Amino acid sequence: MTGVDNANKLAFMRSLGADEVVDYRSTDFTRLGPFDHVLDLVAHRSVFAYRRALARGGRYRCVGGSVPTLLRVVTIGGLLGRLTDRSLGVLAVKQGPAHFEPLTERCVAGDVQIRIDRTLGLDDVPQALAHVGEGHALGKVVVEPA
């Protein structure tokens, strides 16, 4: 598994089990690979770059990014993927407790661990948002009401 993030998180990604880590600021991961699966939390490259990163039969899913990029992934990426035996799209999560029950069971069983970077109070929401937005969080940032 290859993890891609800023240089400050490379050791953290290794501790989570990444075999290889890449600093996206110095290396374009789409020129590495090819990869069987790519989960992109902040899509901002072209759909052609994402297609290039995938092996035949590979799947690319993005979770977030700019609206124009997400629209290109859904439209152009969907067509490009079908033409080249790859799958490009946006990860959509179904709502409701029934869809989260399997993950909940795995968390309770200890198979999935949630990493908490820090816990802050409601008055510290601006600090929490800045910490996450600047790419410093090594896990989840939790805000607890008083």
Widest β-sheet, arrangement of strands: 3-4-5
Largest sheet: 3 strands, parallel
**Which regions have little confidence, pLDDT < 50, spanning 5+ residues?**
none
CATH superfamily of the largest domain: NAD(P)-binding Rossmann-like Domain
| Helix share bin | 25-40%
Overall pLDDT score: 92
Structural class: alpha/beta
Evaluate the radius of gyration.
17 Å
Order of helices and strands: EHEEHEHEHEHE
Strand elements, count: 7
**Principal-axis shape:** globular
The CATH top-level class label of the largest domain: Alpha Beta
Question: Distance N terminus to C terminus?
Answer: 40 Å
Q: What's the domain count?
A: 2
Query: In CATH terms, what is the fold-level topology of the largest domain?
Result: Rossmann fold
What's the number of helices? Answer: 5
Oligomeric assembly: single chain
Q: Could you tell me the strand content as a percent range?
A: 25-35%
**Under the CATH scheme, which architecture of the largest domain would be assigned?**
3-Layer(aba) Sandwich
How are the secondary structure elements laid out?
Elements: E1 2-5, H1 10-15, E2 20-23, E3 35-40, H2 47-53, E4 54-62, H3 67-83, E5 87-90, H4 97-109, E6 116-121, H5 125-133, E7 140-144
Helix pairs in contact: 2-3
